[in-house]
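Renewal narrative, Specific Aim 1. Our central claim is that a sequence can be written position by position from structural information alone. The example that follows is taken directly from our test logs and has not been curated for this report. It begins with the structure tokens describing the chain, in the order in which they were read.
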């Protein structure tokens, strides 16, 4: 509003969030960018991760190949007969026939936009280790079709591309790539309802970071992200119907040795603060009750260690 600016910062600081994101998303930092705590390189690496995910989702059925028709004139038909052009040839006394051969081609504006975006991201980040295996797989094919430094199409040209049901998934990816190639990324517009951006759920980020750390600390155990597994576990079961239950339990982290749970951990994105008499040791009683319920369900014989994991603060 006017000249006012609203900044929302994470409670533990931007540097801490950068480290968590770097671990969870595998955002490799070279020494030059790692030395700068609020570096532009980190933002570029974060946008690179978003772009790689978008490319992977769009290219599930293959690279952005669009059908193109090539006209042929000769004594035989290639592809589909072009009746109107053939009539003109016969009208001039020519024995040839005209036909149109359709084939998929990677030489198009979408490929040029993707290659241009990758080039800008690599320049900003300073290395190519940020690219995912899927991007490394399709990028050489796009470069061979449009070149290493293609001319970026205009915004109207990109908007008038006719997508097929197979290539429609590249529409949003091409839009994002066009912005990145113009060093725009996500922007916020002044018009009402036109703002857009990249939101990071820091609480879920802390949870994923804890899962990664426990997986590295316990390489011999099978570590599962409890809130992502498909199975449903109940605290209480019905005596009448075995399929019915009450109190769905999904701890953040489970570490198994075979089928036996040895660790049940819950990540809490909050500060530990002493508050007598409600929180004399800095722990919320609800968190303790929750962990006790997890242990009672997943380790009724007491084999597992229970842990509440909080981020370290001053």
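The sequence written for that structure reads:
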């Amino acid at each position: 509003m006017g000249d006012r600016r609203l900044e929302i910062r994470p409670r533990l600081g931007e540097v801490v969030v950068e480290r968590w994101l770097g671990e969870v998303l595998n955002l490799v930092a070279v020494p030059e960018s790692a030395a700068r705590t609020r570096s532009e390189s980190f933002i570029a690496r974060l946008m690179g991760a978003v772009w790689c995910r978008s490319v992977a989702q769009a290219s599930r059925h293959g690279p952005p190949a669009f059908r193109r028709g090539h006209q042929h004139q000769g004594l035989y038909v290639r592809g589909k007969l072009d009746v109107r052009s053939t009539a003109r040839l016969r009208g001039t006394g020519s024995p040839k026939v005209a036909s149109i051969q359709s084939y998929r081609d990677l030489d198009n504006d979408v490929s040029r936009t993707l290659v241009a975006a990758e080039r800008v991201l690599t320049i900003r980040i300073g290395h190519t280790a940020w690219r995912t295996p899927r991007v490394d797989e399709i990028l050489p094919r796009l470069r061979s079709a449009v070149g290493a430094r293609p001319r970026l199409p205009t915004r109207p040209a990109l908007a008038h591309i006719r997508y097929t049901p197979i290539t429609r998934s590249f529409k949003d990816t091409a839009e994002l790539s066009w912005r990145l190639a113009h060093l725009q990324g996500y922007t916020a517009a002044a018009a009402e309802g036109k703002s857009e951006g990249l939101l990071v759920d820091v609480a879920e980020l802390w949870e994923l970071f804890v899962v990664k750390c426990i997986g590295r600390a316990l390489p011999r155990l099978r570590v599962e992200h409890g809130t992502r597994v498909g199975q449903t576990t109940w605290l209480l079961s019905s005596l009448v119907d075995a399929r019915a239950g009450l109190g769905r339990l999904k701890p953040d982290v489970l570490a198994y040795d075979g089928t036996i749970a040895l660790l049940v951990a819950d990540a809490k994105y909050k500060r530990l603060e002493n508050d007598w008499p409600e929180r004399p040791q800095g722990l919320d009683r609800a968190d303790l009750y929750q962990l006790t319920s997890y242990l009672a369900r997943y380790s009724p014989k007491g084999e597992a260690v229970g842990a509440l994991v909080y981020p370290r603060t001053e």
